[in-house]
Amino acid sequence: MTYQEAIEQIYRSTKKLKEKGKPAAYIPELSQIDPSKFGVHICPLKEPSFGIGDYQTRFSIQSIAKVFSLSLAYKLKGEKIWERVGVEPSGTKFNSLVQLESDNGIPRNPFINAGALVIADILVSGLKNPKAELLEFVKSMSPSDNISYSPVVEASEKSVGYRNVALCNFLKSLGNIENQPEEVLDFYFTLCSLETDCQTLSSLFLPLAYDGIAPHSNEKIIPNSYSKRINAIMQTCGFYDESGEFAFRVGLPGKSGVGGGIAAVHPDKYSIAVWSPGLNTKGNSYKGMKFLEEFTTLTELSIF
Ligand SMILES: NC(=O)CC[C@H](N)C(=O)O
């Protein structure tokens, strides 16, 4: 069975499922999204890419962008970043505050909000123009430049961002934020507002399936060892307190966002992006998880 045949078959059966989860309610702009949207796009390394459904509709990628900010911070500062953020699954919700105090302000990993705020701080310190440079870095990964920040989503999240404000101030008080919290939060909310479609998103993850190289340009985006380590962190921490479940059911390194997107990679084989805005209770796309579970089962192509 080809990738295309598998995707067509699973898309049809997953689309029919009555249960589809609920769009994120805590960010006003995201709560408006039509929950019946559903798109999938795959970029195999050695075969033509393929998309189905709403794969060319743009959506808010939210926390999936944390893979890009981590990649850039890692490239910029190397192994030093691990002095300020860990690589252990947190077992808590993405925006949890509880572990930070006992962990002395060192977030468990770069994908929970606390860890992503520390990574944001590293980029704010290390780059002249962090927002523009991050976007330029992201665009270098793909032949498509169909990705941009959404000022509307950013403003919407800022209007209710009390928890992230609390997290950033808490981190500052514990000595793990160098800049003013307002500046770090501004960069963080802009990062989370990145918008693209499944077609571009899957291509943006292809370097992580190809030893850190962007196949369209042959450019080394990040060293091979960084690419492997980022995949390891996606595998263990990419789905918050559902990371074990995702490894168990899907078996691919991946990252989700509360916009309902999931990007995942099979090293040396493919990258794939799925979008369905309805979330399960852990904040991960309900149909996105179902789709990927069926996909790796039918194709027998998980990393395990
Ligand atoms: N899991 C997510 O996608 C969360 C990202 C969102 N911008 C937040 O900080 O709450």
Report on this structure.
By secondary structure, the protein is an alpha+beta fold. The chain has one domain (3-299): Beta-lactamase (3-Layer(aba) Sandwich), CATH 3.40.710. It is 45% helix and 12% strand. It has helices spanning 3-16, 28-31, 65-77, 98-102, 113-126, 130-139, 151-158, 162-173, 181-192, 198-204, 206-209, 224-237, 243-249, 286-299, and strands spanning 39-44, 50-53, 59-60, 148-149, 194-196, 213-214, 219-220, 254-256, 261-266, 270-275. The strands form three sheets. The chain has a five-stranded antiparallel sheet with strand order 2-1-10-9-8. Helix 3 packs across helix 5 and helix 5 packs across helix 8. The radius of gyration is 18 Å and the shape is globular. The structure holds glutamine. The site of glutamine (GLN) has 11 residues, from loops.
Number of helices: 14
Would you identify the CATH H-level superfamily? Answer: DD-peptidase/beta-lactamase superfamily
Strand order, sheet with most strands? 2-1-10-9-8
Order of helices and strands: HHEEEHHHHEHHHEHHEEHHEEEH
Uncertain regions: pLDDT < 50 for 5+ in a row? none
N/C terminus separation:
19 Å
Can you tell me the overall shape? globular
Fraction of residues in H or I helices: 40-55%
Instruction: Profile the largest sheet.
Output: 5 strands, antiparallel
CATH top level is Alpha Beta
- What is the averaged pLDDT score? 96
Strand tally: 10
Bound molecules: glutamine
User: Any idea of the CATH topology?
Assistant: Beta-lactamase
CATH architecture name: 3-Layer(aba) Sandwich
The radius of gyration over CA amounts to 18 Å
Structural category is alpha+beta
